[in-house]
Backbone:
């Protein structure tokens, strides 16, 4: 019996010109788009690069940016969460309505329990009952949005409690001032980045989304991973609700109506694949900033809000098309 | 033969029924130390059910599985893995977007020592990379770095990563379920080499394959499965491919010795 002596060598070099390497550098596209947008708008408007305006972009990105972190984790598992914005809105109302009797800390804890409970319902249905996350979260979105209206009695609640509006406070150096909410945004991204890249749990999120069969064979508990992911979305939704009251100290059941879809926009523009297993929160942060810069910049140069929506929509479709084509090329 | 060979894993009279269908019908099985045992059988002969019972993916209704002579019960694949039995599946059970080291250690990640590992649960990436590279080098799988994403590898290399994962953690038995089914000719040959290298390290391999030339290339003995049970164990140096196929389909009767599990 002869034994081959050669080793399993790397794949043969590509002969034809091939641009799929771009797909394997998933942050290149989004980063280039962000830089392009910044350059264009700083030429178009002298106010764009002012410290005040940059802080404003940051502040306008806080709530969607934080929620987009949760959306990223869900999409990495090949799921989707249509209820995330509605959970956060419910969180703001719970905080605003319980703060009188329970105090600031109590209100935060009650909101945390409520948000985690909704996340756990999503997670249980998506994992143990294996229902499609799209349908599950569409259902909880509808129910939670209605529950918010009922609980609020279709009224809005101004919030004055210093703890609940904590993230509205200023901080900064010299002319560069911004709110603590922007700091919170950065912290949420940093913590999630650490968990996804430096812990086993994070690797399992990618595994469950990338190849669930293989994940099961290697002994990963898929249901537990999915449940944890949706519980985390509840936690992050509560944090976003807290940050939202810092930004606008008023709990309104009609606020953040488009938040669910805006988070998906940020995630997709950031290069995370809707098919799961591929992407990063860094991309999502860039995606959030692209949308923020685009809306802010277009406003500064006097473009109507509706045209901004069209621009964002085109961007989302381009991002998904890019992902699809790259996937086909690499397979 | 003067001294009887050491039996690592054996099964006696396994039965598994699904309603009126009998998937395993009193099957016996015997794997000896340091051998490559091929398991072959027609579609529907029940060989995959047998393998599932041995890897813990299926719990037999009756019968007995023994490791080193001790009775064992596998209720899940994790039970089998705790006994040192690792399985490589045909459909390239790797996570494309994760790097090689993450794939090799998937589900068994190493954490850093001290505060970083116990409280912050930080992975020990340098150690996982170094150990992965060591295993890859041992099995002569040439990759540049363990930080490469598995999706950048060829099919043979990907299967190599899956094999490395099993070889790295399988302390007693490696089961390979159609490991070349998704691969081309050249890459299949590489997987055959991997099987030989694992045998050279003293680990016995159970190879389930449809590919007769492969089976005859690497197997020390061939377990022929037919109608839910072992019909013969044959020596590939004694029987020809045509004869083994005939045994598999029932066209040929095995010898008494072959019926009883071979020499």
Residues:
């Amino acid at each position: 019996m002869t034994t081959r002596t050669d080793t399993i060598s790397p794949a043969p070099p590509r002969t034809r010109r091939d641009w799929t390497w771009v797909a394997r550098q998933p942050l290149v596209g989004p980063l280039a788009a962000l830089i392009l947008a910044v350059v264009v708008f700083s030429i178009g408007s002298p106010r764009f690069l002012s410290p005040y305006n940059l802080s404003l972009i940051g502040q306008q990105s806080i709530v969607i940016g934080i929620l987009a972190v949760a959306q990223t984790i869900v999409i990495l598992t090949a799921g989707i969460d249509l209820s995330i914005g509605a959970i956060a809105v419910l969180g703001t109302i719970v905080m605003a309505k319980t703060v009188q009797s329970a105090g600031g800390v109590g209100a935060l804890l009650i909101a945390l329990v409520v948000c985690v409970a909704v996340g756990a319902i999503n997670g249980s249905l998506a994992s143990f009952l294996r229902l499609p996350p799209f349908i599950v979260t569409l259902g909880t979105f509808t129910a939670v949005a209605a529950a918010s209206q009922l609980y609020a009695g279709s009224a809005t609640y101004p919030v004055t409690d210093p703890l609940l509006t904590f993230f509205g406070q200023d901080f900064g150096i010299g002319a560069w001032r911004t709110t603590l909410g922007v700091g919170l945004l950065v912290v949420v991204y940093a913590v999630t980045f650490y968990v996804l890249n430096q812990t086993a749990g994070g690797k399992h999120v990618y595994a469950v989304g990338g190849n669930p069969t293989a994940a099961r064979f290697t002994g990963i508990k898929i249901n537990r991973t999915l449940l944890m992911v949706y519980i985390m979305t509840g936690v992050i939704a509560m944090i976003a609700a807290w940050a939202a009251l810092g930004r606008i100290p008023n709990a309104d059941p009609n606020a953040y109506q488009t938040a669910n879809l805006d988070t998906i926009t940020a995630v997709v523009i950031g290069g995370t694949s809707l098919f799961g297993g591929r992407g990063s929160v860094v991309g999502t942060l860039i995606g959030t900033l692209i949308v923020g810069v685009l809306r802010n910049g277009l406003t500064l140069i006097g473009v109507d809000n509706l045209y901004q929506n069209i621009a964002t929509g085109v961007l989302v479709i381009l991002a998904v098309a890019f992902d699809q084509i790259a996937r086909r090329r690499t397979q | 033969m003067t001294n009887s060979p050491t039996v690592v894993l054996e099964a006696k009279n396994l039965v598994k029924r699904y309603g009126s269908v009998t998937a395993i019908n009193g099957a016996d099985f015997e794997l000896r130390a340091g051998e490559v045992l091929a398991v072959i059988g027609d579609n529907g002969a029940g060989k995959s059910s047998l393998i599932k019972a041995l890897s813990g993916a299926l719990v037999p209704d009756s019968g007995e599985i023994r490791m080193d002579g001790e009775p064992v019960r596998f209720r899940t694949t994790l039970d089998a893995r705790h006994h040192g039995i690792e399985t490589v599946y045909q459909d390239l059970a790797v996570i494309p977007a994760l790097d090689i080291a993450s794939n090799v250690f998937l589900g068994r990640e190493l954490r850093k020592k001290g505060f970083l590992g116990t409280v912050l649960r930080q992975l020990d990436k340098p150690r996982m990379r170094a150990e992965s590279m060591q295993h890859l080098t041992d099995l002569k799988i040439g990759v540049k770095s363990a930080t490469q994403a598995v999706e950048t590898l060829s099919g043979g290399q990907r299967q190599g990563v899956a094999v490395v994962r099993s070889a790295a953690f399988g302390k007693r038995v490696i089961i390979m379920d159609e490991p070349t089914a998704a691969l081309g000719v050249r890459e299949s040959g590489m997987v055959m080499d991997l099987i030989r290298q694992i045998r050279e390290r003293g680990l016995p391999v159970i190879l389930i394959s449809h590919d007769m030339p492969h089976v005859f290339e690497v197997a020390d003995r061939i377990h022929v499965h037919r109608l839910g049970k072992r019909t013969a164990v044959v020596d590939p140096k004694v029987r020809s491919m045509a004869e083994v196929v005939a045994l598999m389909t029932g066209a040929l009767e095995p010898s008494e010795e072959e019926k009883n599990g071979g020499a």
Q: What stands out?
A: The two ends of chain B are 8 Å apart (CA to CA).
